[in-house]
Amino acid sequence: MASANTSWSEENFSCPICLDVFSSPVSTPCGHNFCRTCINKFWDEQVQCKCPICNKMFDTRPDPQVNILVSEMADQFRTAVRVKEQPCVEPGEVPCDVCTETQLKAVKSCLMCFTSYCQTHLEPHQRVAVLKKHRLVEPMDRLEDRMCKKHDRLLELFCQTEQECVCQFCTEGDHKSHPVVPLKEEYEVKTALLGKIEAEVQQMIQERKLKINKIKDTVEYSKKDADGVIANGGQVFTALMRRIKKWRDDFNQTVKERLKTTEKQAEDLIKELEQEIEDLTNRSSEVKPLSHTKDHLHFLQAFRSLKDPPPTRDWATVEVRPPSYVRTLRRSLDQLEETLNMEMKKLPDDAELKRVQQYEVDVTLDPETAHTQLILSEDGKQVHDGGVQKILLLGNPKRFTNCWYRCVLTRQSISSGRFYFEVQVKDNTAWELGVARESIDRKGSKGWTPETGYWTLHYYKNGLIFRDNPSVRLPLRAELQKVGVFVDYDEGLVSFYEVEARVHIYSATGCAFTEPLYPILDPCNYVRGTNSAPLIISPVNQTD
Question: Which of 378, 391, 394, 518 is most buried (CB neighbours < 10 A)?
């Protein structure tokens, strides 16, 4: 039986009476087709039976017979119409490759034709003997990509060596010795791996979201901190400006008074000089006439009557020295410096310490670097000088061996960003701590300065210095209990804090860091029972 021509219209399969698709179509003796119900009803209403189309009269009422061909074709047409009325292909479904107008959903794909078919266009594969031999599978999109380019066979296997999809023929050739598994099995493995990757990605996303929130919190804290600093700074600068104005007025007044004193001194000297000039002029008037007389008697008598000359000062040593204002200016500047130092001491170091404490890192001491006389605790948090050198440990190139510097580094280092740690120094009479670069000389004694790779504080006999060239001597505001060390690698900054007093000790700025930095501790010598307390890396308590 030929398949229905889907290009036919509904009129070709419509009953001329009801105008609908044939239902149980029958044929009249004249060869026209009608629905059985429609033609019987039509003849029931007629006196003499005739054909509704050609009007041929029948002597007796015919017994119309079922038209098998028209019935089957009408059924196929009705099925095709119902399929066409179905919705179009949904997302994720495979479309029919044969449909020319509205593409319908494919129900099978042929691996021989490389074509996907809807139910209507699949019919020849279900009827024609040659097509029945084709291999039909569940609908697949992009069939050409699912076929082996070399063997024209379906890619059903996965080569674990080459990590690629292969066909059955490939396993007998290039992939003969390779382990292969069905696609489904490898799919399940890769799906599980993908799930792990997705979980890791989601975790990374969450970590970055938390980092964003932390950065936002830092910015918010910085804004509040900035507002407080601006307010405090405004008060300080306002007070300073008032004092500077007063010092300027006092300085100007002092200079004017000294100038006035100088002018008064000069004025008095000038008056005195003018008086002597007047007296000398009068004396000259008395003496001058005698110098012209030739009468000896008169000259001698007149000369005897001359008055004694007025007393005069020896003006050779008399001078008006201009006042020096440099000392006055220096004294004013000294007062300004003293006031600035006092105001700086009033700055809220507590807020600054809280800010840097948020960059706390958990560091532990590295026994591989410890000097042979040092004793470390099992948790790597404490170190003290044991007083005895362990000769067997001298061979490690990482270890400090210089007799003057009994040091140990931490396992952790920093190459960017910021970090902060605290060390308890209570009850120690000598110690040194800070950070050092990785390439420092651990065998010699080049000295501890930034030039040689050390940024450290040194405490000895109640004296505190930052080692530099020359060293910077620092004041001790209170007995040191705990020292905080903060490093901003990118900004080139190393700062030290008295944690218990919550004040800033010293900052080294403009440092050039080009390699990893390690926290470094030196508990110094243990001598006859002194300096026996350990240096302890302590957890940060930001609630202090």
Answer: 518
Q: How many residues does the chain have?
A: 544
- CATH classification for the domain delimited by 10-85, as one of 3.90.1200.10, 3.30.300.30, 3.30.40.10, 1.10.1040.10: 3.30.40.10
DSSP 230-296: HHHHHHHHHHHHHHHHHHHHHHHHHHHHHHHHHHHHHHHHHHHHHHHHHHHHHHHHHHHHHTT---H
Cα distance between residue 136 and residue 125, in whole Å: 9
Would you state the torsion angle of the CA atoms of residues 287, 288, 294, 295, taken in this order, to the nearest 10 degrees?
-40
Q: How far apart are CA 535 and CA 524, in angstroms?
A: 10
Query: How far is C-alpha 403 from the geometric centre of its chain's CA atoms?
Result: 43
Residues 436, 473, 498, CA angle at the centre, nearest 5°? Answer: 70
519: amino acid identity, one letter: P
pLDDT, tens only, 382-429: 999 887 766 655 667 788 887 677 899 999 999 999 999 999 999 888
Which residue stretches of the chain have pLDDT < 70?
Answer: 1-12, 78-88, 343-349, 389-395, 403, 444-446, 477, 526-529, 542-544
Q: Which CATH class is domain 353-538?
A: mainly beta
pTM: 0.46
Which pLDDT tens digit goes with each residue over 455-477? 999 998 778 999 999 999 998 86
Instruction: Please give the Cα distance from 14 to 34 (Å, whole number).
Output: 8
- Of 368, 390, 389, residue with least CA distance to 380: 368
